[in-house]
């Protein structure tokens, strides 16, 4: 089996739009379609997944953050984030086919190193080997009881996918995490204003309270001043007679 055909099956679909020819060929190969994909609310964005052969093939998608994007889950709204091939049975592995060059899921980890190269990083905690092929990260897990391959995961690491994941992570840690990505352009609703009492730290200070009729007394004073100005002459003559 040629490398071009193999990369078309696996490596080339990573980071591609779900409606791309590469992904559509993948669907056709395994008798699947976008209608078989299940979408769900992830952290900040909408995610989707497809499982084939009883979860032996797991394909995950993440929604692109397009402004005012449609709420409907169309294939062109999603990007392939990662593809995982799980070592299961020889029969299923035959259906999956060669992974890369002559590497099969039933091979040993040493065969994976031979195929992907010796420029790898070993994650001891996960017991897996990691490689980078352009914008794809490859993780090959090792079975705990043998040298057999337990799984192979291809993960997109392109700029657009990383940007989506960064936004998703920031949304998951913010009050907007309850809203879907397509609602980002909508202004948040106005919150009702509530006046909260403020406690002052004044000590031994006399508190002067304003009388309940404070406004009314002000109007009375103003009216008295106006009346005094109008009847100034009469009032002046009245006081003059008193002092005579």
- From the N-terminal CA to the C-terminal CA, the straight-line distance is 132 Å
Please state roughly what percent of the residues sit in beta strands, choosing from under 5%, 5-15%, 15-25%, 25-35%, 35-45% or over 45%: 15-25%
What is the structural class?
A: alpha+beta
How many helices does DSSP assign? 7
Low-confidence stretches are 1-8, 185-190
Proportion of helical residues: 25-40%
Number of strands: 8
Shape: rod-shaped
Give the biggest beta sheet. 8 strands, antiparallel
H-E order: HHEEEEHHEEEEHHH
Strand order of the largest sheet: 1-2-3-4-8-7-6-5
Transmembrane segments: 213-232
Keywords: Membrane, Transmembrane, Transmembrane helix
What would your notes on this structure say?
- With 244 residues, this protein is α+β, with helices and mostly antiparallel strands.
- It is built from 7 helices and 8 strands, in the order ααββββααββββααα.
- Strands 1-2-3-4-8-7-6-5 form an 8-stranded antiparallel sheet.
- The N and C termini lie far apart (132 Å).
- The model is unreliable at 1-8 and 185-190 (pLDDT under 50).
- Keywords: Membrane, Transmembrane, Transmembrane helix.
